[in-house]
Amino acid sequence: MRVLVPDLPEFRELRVEGVEFAFYSAEQLPEGEAEGLVLWLTPPGLQGQLLNWPGLKWVLTLTAGIEHVAGALPEGVTLYNAHRLHDRAVAVHVLAGMLAAARGLHRFRDAQQEGRWKRTLDLGTLDGARVVIWGYGHIGKILEDLLRPFSAKVTGIRSRTPDAERDAALAEADWVVLLLPSTPETKGIVNADVLARLKPGAWLSNQGRGDLIDTDALLAALESGHLGGAVLDVTDPEPLPEGHPLWQQPNVIITPHIASTTRDLIRRGADYTRAFLTEMQAGREPEGRVEAGQRY
Ligand code: GLV
């Protein structure tokens, strides 16, 4: 079986019985057909060509989200994703943001940059905090476990949660954590109406996709003081351009879409690929298959 993989040192070291690796990069594309494609950190402009490679039967995207592939996948090509590669780091990132916000670290960092010793009583813990995890899946479960020692009260919302139940949970929340994928149904799901229903002072954490939130509505809710603040790893637009008003919001903590990143991510991605291909070569179905009905 011939498989296209990114040209990275960790992937160059891969050996799997019966698999021939062909390496792609912005500088060089291999020749000849390939049955599989491991899509990751793809140079801009290359993705379309890779997804339409002659002989392609399956694609493994080493991301959790699939919206970059979904609409562009030729008929009959099987798609796999790799949420397990990212779940724990994202959950840790959410917790880190919540603790940073509760302890006011962003405000102290701002004061530090001005060399000011600025004390305040306006600090909290997560004791008793009502946390709504909107998009409760693998990451949500890990986050719930991580939050347990902090005595937060977690409610998970899934797509099948009845609207009334969801709205009641949102109205009580001190934190709303968005872990939803980007789909036609979730685009702009956090709009002015939803923000208005949140408790005054509630915080929002978006670790899903930027387009889940209507950015203008978010800015308005922050500026009016209705929303306590936001921790955003994803934004709309993304990357957030220089001069965008979100940069200037005192109670917004922005990270540049790195929630799932760890120092050893590439190594873990290569290890994941090896395990995936070993399963396939053994005639077993590897994990992560995205059924056609789940693609948007
Ligand atoms: C990152 O956002 C991912 O989908 O893996």
From TrEMBL:
Pfam families for the chain: 2-Hacid_dh_C
Query: What InterPro entries does its record include?
Result: D-isomer_DH_NAD-bd, NAD(P)-bd_dom_sf
Q: Which UniProt keywords apply?
A: NAD, Oxidoreductase
Domain of life here?
A: Bacteria
Boundaries of every D-isomer specific 2-hydroxyacid dehydrogenase NAD-binding domain copy: 96-259
Q: Which PANTHER family match?
A: 2-HACID_DH_C DOMAIN-CONTAINING PROTEIN (PTHR43333), D-ISOMER SPECIFIC 2-HYDROXYACID DEHYDROGENASE NAD-BINDING DOMAIN-CONTAINING PROTEIN (PTHR43333:SF1)
Name of the molecule in the record: Glycerate dehydrogenase
Q: Which organism is it from?
A: Deinococcus aluminii
